[in-house]
Design goal:
Helix content: 10-25%
CATH architecture: Sandwich
CATH topology: Immunoglobulin-like
Number of strands: 10
Keywords: Signal
Distance between the termini: 31 Å
Signal peptide: 1-20
Shape: globular
Structural class: alpha+beta
Length: 167
């Protein structure tokens, strides 16, 4: 099951990673509804990106040498590629709103400021579930169990790759 999730995630995320050779992915950890993994360049063996992704593929985070980002997946398949869409995450009483750009009919991405990224991950670390909405339409409820441990692995990947950390 986890290989299937990572292969689907790789198919979603691979176009976002520029490399001369195909990157190699490695699972770093799995806990609850979350997994951490990284890509490394096949030739140089250098880590090119770190990820934390919900196993249902609804929500994820990416860090690379020059950016941090929020990744989302909508099962409805109604997103318009290259169009911006309002996206909201509600965790307990905290509400976050982002403008996401649709990469295709299901996946969208936003490059976040370090501060926005830090506040969002902090809120998610203490929550039980997160409600995801595109526009005003609820699209998913994400189980946050296991996320704190996965974020620790995510930070470890960022640190070992010498990426700019947002902590």
């Amino acid at each position: 099951m986890i290989k299937k999730i990572i292969l689907v995630a790789a198919g979603l995320i691979f176009p976002l990673i520029a490399s001369a050779a195909q990157p190699i992915y490695q699972l770093d950890a799995k806990d609850g509804n979350w997994s951490a993994f990284h890509y490394q360049d096949a030739q140089s063996q250098k880590v090119t990106a770190c990820f934390a992704l919900s196993n249902d593929l609804a929500l994820g985070f990416k860090s690379s040498n020059d950016e941090v980002g929020l990744l989302t997946w909508s099962k409805q398949g109604t997103l318009q590629p290259k169009m911006d869409t309002r996206f909201a995450i509600t965790v307990g009483k905290q509400h976050f709103t982002f403008t996401m750009q649709a990469m295709d009919q299901n996946m969208s991405m936003n490059r976040l400021s370090d501060q926005d990224f830090k506040h969002l991950l902090e809120a998610l670390s203490y929550g039980q579930i997160a409600l995801l909405e595109y526009g005003k339409n609820p699209v998913a409820v994400v189980d946050l169990s296991g996320l704190p441990n996965i974020l620790a692995k995510f930070h470890q990947c960022i640190k070992s790759a010498n990426f700019k950390d947002y902590k």
